[in-house]
Amino acid sequence: MSKLGNLGARLYRGEVGYDFVGKRKIWYGISILITITAIVGLAVRGLNMGIEFEGGAVFNTPKTSVSVSQAEESAEKASGHDAIVQKLGDDKLRIQIAGVDIKKSDQIKKSLAEDLDVKAGDIDADLVGPSWGDQIANKAWQGLAIFMVLVVIYLAIAFEWRMALAALIALIHDITITVGVYALVGFEVTPGTVIGLLTILGYSLYDTVVVFDSLKEQSKDITKQTRYTYSELANRSINGTLVRSINTTVVALLPVAGLLFIGGGALGAGMLNDISLSLFVGLAAGAYSSIFIATPLVADFKEREPQMKALKKRVLAKRAAAAAKGESAEAPSSYADEEPEDDAATGDAAPAVVGPRSQPASRNRGRGRPSGKRR
Amino acid sequence: MAAPKKGRRQSAPGKPGRSLVFILIALVALTGGMFLSGHTTPRLGIDLAGGTSITLEAKNEPGQKNAINPANMNTAVDIINNRVNGLGVSEAEVQTQGDKNIIVNIPKGSNEKQAREQVGTTAQLYFRPVITQAPGQPTPEPSTSPSSGTDKEKDKDKATDKATDKATDKAGSPSSTPTSQGRAVSEALKADPTPSASDKAKDKGGKKDETPKPDPATAKLQEQFTKLDCTDKKARAEAGRGIKPSDPTIACGKSPDGKTWDKFILAPAELNGKDVDDAKAAIKQETGAWVVNMEFTKGGAKKFSNVTSKLMKQQSPQNQFAIVLDGEVASAPSVSVVLSTNAEISGNFNQESAKDLANILSYGALPLTFHEQSVTTVSPALGGEQLKAGLIAGAIGLALVIIYLVAYYRGLSLIAIASLLVSAALTYTIMTLLGPTIKFALNLPAVCGAIVAIGITADSFIVFFERVRDEIREGRTLRPAVERGWPRARRTILVSDFVSFLAAAVLFVVTVGKVQGFAFTLGLTTLLDVVVVFFFTKPLMTLMARKKFFASGHKWSGLDPERLGAKPPLRRSRRTAPPAGPVDPKEA
């Protein structure tokens, strides 16, 4: 049945693979489209901010026999917004409703009084300031900015600045998409959402870093070989880690989906829903961006380097020569067991991925040394 | 093919047993600690467990009519938040309601009383020069009914004036032997209660030298002072209540031994809490004693150097200034040299009292006075029903993850699942233990963070497994494959976990409240991920690589070289793909 295992092997060897890098223009296009949609959505519809950000009304009722869920229902009916109902000591209720102004609050108070069977005069209504949510949001933005700076520095040291830049762009891309989805769909933004969004930071980068790590390894001795251009190596890195990316994403998304669809879905709005929703959107966006955006961007940046340009020229020249001789470009490899399907699989897109060479240049280093000593 | 070659060259797998024992011991120790401490479940945040909700109302103080404004309210929220959240993981929520209320939600299981004290203490901090000091009992005549409270309001007006006139120009007075040993403020509270408090009081007084005053007011203050019984709690609380900072007042304070009380007549306030930039408790190197270091703001430093330059010339007890918190003297250090930006308060501190004072100094600067309006118990915002559903959903998600891992990694999934379990156990015990120690409270965001962490943790295994499988694809047998795959997987894991941890650390430092608790969880689980992978997953993998089941590439081991499409070790000319043929259907 599933040929996934085998597929993994062939992906690993570069026998099959999708030409992510070669088709980057398409992905850039799609991403730009999504981003524009997100921005337009944000501009036109704005975000539906929760009570913690917008402020809102808090009603304290006197003792009542009405249950929390009933009260929630009637509060939502009366206001048209989500309501948070809590039981206070002695069966009193506290009902919080977002985005309510004074006028509306009187109206809600009346209808609440009816539904809960208490006197309107006995319900305390208070308008809540948005200070708490604002504080959280402001500090979250501040954290985001600091994090971005630090992570760019770190990635620039651990890898190189081009990768850092690409990772940053991918990160911003993820956040934009997530925020855009919120604007378009109109989900309520609560501190839970902010938290979910912040989680995405680490996670989206995590994914990207794994691909970059493989790319760094593969391209270590890139200038010493003439088989692949940088883009092609980048593409191999993506394909080589593709199984991992898919597995990781599935494993991360499953529990979140559980929270979102089973936990939240069955019970309506709540912080569970808020967090898992933004996580779900963000994780998906993060997986997408590490494959389709971050790595192709690195390849793009890299290929501007004179060195890489020269390499590309050499590689292409060599290929042309080989082609002239009617040989496969891969011929020199001792294990040139070309499989026809490789070509089929990758289509005519790029000769790049065709090569079934079993290992990238760097792989051979350390052969024969005691295992485990090789980094 | 790369089949089982038993007894192949040992590839330096280290000592897997040792790490496993280490983890086991750690787990047992943590679990033991958990039961010993009597806390077997993590402390829950207010959204999961309910808690106490305190409503504070800002009060207009005489003399500061427009003090209740949004800016001051926000400052107050910040300060209260700092006080109740201390380390930032106790999940208390502080928010404004209306124009003059602040709501503080404190999770159940916290020390509610202490929290209320910290919050409800409307800490107003002033620095007032000491005019008179005496032991706390009503001095001469025991008679005194500690009624006090009564007519302060009126008194203060008068009081002000008097105080001022007293001021017999201290400037002139010869400095009273500044015993300065280079030390900033020396010997806090020296109980050197001048007898006949009364007389003194008159001589000194505030700094302003002005208009002569009617004695009556002073006399009144004096009289109150005489009557004041600091051993009586009520009297203590009422002493000096409602007095404007710009008026002299009376107050009580613990004497240095911490057991008895002293009482004071204090001059108008020179500085207030806002002038203090920061304060920290520290151990003084030379003496090994606890001290409190204060830093003043720019304006504060100026005022402070003015005060100290005046005070140092006085004689005891007038060379002291009292740090007055909510009408009570928290400390009354004497001054021996002129100070400005930094000051050190030394005295009879122990660690706790030094920290307390530092806290008061740094967080005590509430710009407003608050009164506790109501204290109620609230149910969890998230009904039990919803929490249950959330947990069930989480469990289902986890089950799906396990099914997926089993389907894909077969035998290897055992290692993954065992690692996830160890990771979960470590996380649980540590969170539980952090409840009593640093007041860590698990709230919903933290739970979600932990669920997301499943993904991060599992990712490490996946990276490792894929590496090993890659090595096998290259034709290695399992043992070398594990040892060679590990260093590279390790680097990837470290690099990506570092990014994750960086995110958590930045958020923890920068943010507040819920987000901070969440960041804490994320950072903790990331660290544990590294620990588990290094000390559990890898050693376990090394051990397993010796087992025939895995080493032989059993088709259920998840490491079947054929299914992985390994190349034959030596001959590379032809792919061996089909030989194993149709036998085994699925490799996930």
From TrEMBL, chain A:
Entry's Gene Ontology cellular component terms? plasma membrane
Which portions of the chain have biased composition (kind: Basic residues)? Answer: 364-375
Q: Which Gene3D superfamilies match?
A: Multidrug efflux transporter AcrB transmembrane domain
Transmembrane region positions? Answer: 26-44, 140-157, 164-187, 193-215, 246-269, 275-299
Pfam families tied to this protein: Sec_GG (PF07549), SecD_SecF_C (PF02355)
Domain called Protein export membrane protein SecD/SecF C-terminal: residue spans: 110-303
Give membrane topology per the record: Multi-pass membrane protein
Q: Which GO terms describe its biological process?
A: intracellular protein transmembrane transport; protein targeting; protein transport by the Sec complex
Its subcellular locations are:
Cell membrane
Q: Where is this region: Disordered?
A: 324-375
Q: List, as start-end ranges, the regions of compositional bias called Acidic residues.
A: 336-345
Q: Which NCBIfam families does this chain map to?
A: 2A0604s01, transloc_SecF
Q: Which family does it belong to?
A: Belongs to the SecD/SecF family. SecF subfamily.
Q: Per its database record, what is this protein's job?
A: Part of the Sec protein translocase complex. Interacts with the SecYEG preprotein conducting channel. SecDF uses the proton motive force (PMF) to complete protein translocation after the ATP-dependent function of SecA.
Q: Please report the name of this protein according to its UniProt entry.
A: Protein-export membrane protein SecF
> What is the organism field in this record?
Streptomyces venezuelae
Q: What gene is it encoded by?
A: secF
TrEMBL record, chain B:
TM annotation in the entry: 20-38, 389-407, 414-434, 440-465, 493-512, 518-537
What InterPro entries has UniProt attached to this entry?
A: SecD, SecD/SecF_arch_bac, SecD/SecF_CS, SecD_1st, SecD_SecF_C, SecD_SecF_C_bact, SecDF_P1_head
Q: So which domain of life are we looking at? A: Bacteria
Domain Protein export membrane protein SecD/SecF C-terminal residues, every copy: 371-546
Which is an annotated Pfam family here? Sec_GG
> What membrane topology term does the record carry?
Multi-pass membrane protein
Q: Which GO terms describe its biological process?
A: intracellular protein transmembrane transport; protein targeting; protein transport by the Sec complex
Q: How does it assemble?
A: Forms a complex with SecF. Part of the essential Sec protein translocation apparatus which comprises SecA, SecYEG and auxiliary proteins SecDF. Other proteins may also be involved.
- Please give the NCBIfam families that the UniProt record associates with this protein: 2A0604s01 (TIGR00916), secD (TIGR01129)
Q: What does this protein do?
A: Part of the Sec protein translocase complex. Interacts with the SecYEG preprotein conducting channel. SecDF uses the proton motive force (PMF) to complete protein translocation after the ATP-dependent function of SecA.
Protein name per Swiss-Prot or TrEMBL: Protein translocase subunit SecD
Organism, as annotated = Streptomyces venezuelae
What is the gene called? secD
